């Protein structure tokens, strides 16, 4: 559907002006405004004034909660977690998280050769995470790499139990190797629009 491009753009880039959206999607400003107004009427996006210092505030578009919920999720729902905790206790939830972590490590290690340079491992990991619905990106920096996940398919579970996030972070660090320092600098469950990681080789 045509409107998907708008939602994906705002999901991956954050709040953008009409002009910026039109430029990114290579359409006219009028065409962009028409689609954005339709999405606003449907409750997927909202427009707000954003100050950039000097001059008048500019109008930018961003996703609403309905817009965020449009993207796919896994079955780590609040209801499922509540059932596990209530019926089996928090210790069983920890076992579920640990088992999920071990399975993820096995799956990623089977697909990614650990003898490759860090950049190549990260490129392959980015591809896999995209296939899993994380809308992942990477870029090279002066002293290493940045890795981004613009969507969290397990957000509901991660918000309810921080163990899921910490487990995924441990899996990521394990996959990249001991010679690599990874720091999480943005976190969706903390209110950021994405998860972002700084990756550098240890000196």
Strand content: 15-25%
Low-confidence stretches: none
| Helical coverage, percent range | 40-55%
Provide the structure class. Answer: alpha+beta
Principal-axes geometry comes out as globular
Report on this structure.
It contains 9 helices and 7 strands. By secondary structure, it is of the alpha+beta class. The strands form 2 sheets. A 4-stranded antiparallel sheet has the order 4-5-7-6, with helices on one face. The longest helix is centred in the middle third of the chain and has 22 residues, at 90-111. The relative contact order is 0.11. The model has no long low-confidence stretch (mean pLDDT 85).
Q: Which key terms come to mind for this protein?
A:
203 residues, alpha+beta, four-stranded antiparallel sheet, three-stranded antiparallel sheet, globular
Outline of this structure?
The chain is an alpha+beta fold and 203 residues long.
List the SSEs and their pairings.
Layout: H1 2-13, E1 16-17, H2 18-25, H3 29-41, E2 45-50, E3 58-63, H4 65-69, H5 78-88, H6 90-111, H7 118-131, E4 136-141, E5 144-149, H8 155-160, H9 163-176, E6 180-186, E7 195-201
Antiparallel strand pairs: 1-3, 2-3, 4-5, 5-7, 6-7
């Amino acid at each position: 559907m045509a409107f998907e491009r708008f939602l994906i753009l705002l999901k991956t880039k954050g709040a953008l002006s009409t002009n910026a959206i039109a430029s990114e999607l290579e359409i006219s400003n009028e065409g962009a405004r028409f689609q954005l107004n339709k999405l606003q009427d449907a409750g997927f996006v909202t427009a707000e004034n954003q100050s950039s210092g000097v001059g008048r505030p500019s109008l930018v578009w961003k996703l609403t909660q309905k817009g965020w919920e449009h993207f796919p999720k896994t079955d780590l729902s609040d209801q499922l977690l509540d059932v596990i905790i209530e019926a089996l206790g928090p210790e069983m939830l920890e076992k579920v998280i640990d088992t999920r972590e071990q399975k993820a490590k096995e799956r990623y290690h089977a697909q990614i050769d650990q003898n490759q340079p860090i950049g190549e491992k990260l490129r392959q990991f980015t591809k896999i995470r995209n296939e899993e619905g994380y809308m992942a990106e990477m870029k090279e920096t002066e002293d290493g790499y940045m890795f981004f996940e613009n969507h969290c398919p397990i957000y509901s579970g991660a918000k309810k139990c921080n163990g899921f996030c910490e487990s995924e972070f441990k899996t990521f660090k394990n996959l990249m190797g001991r010679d690599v320092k990874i720091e999480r600098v943005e976190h969706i469950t903390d209110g950021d629009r994405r998860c972002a990681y700084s990756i550098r080789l240890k000196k």
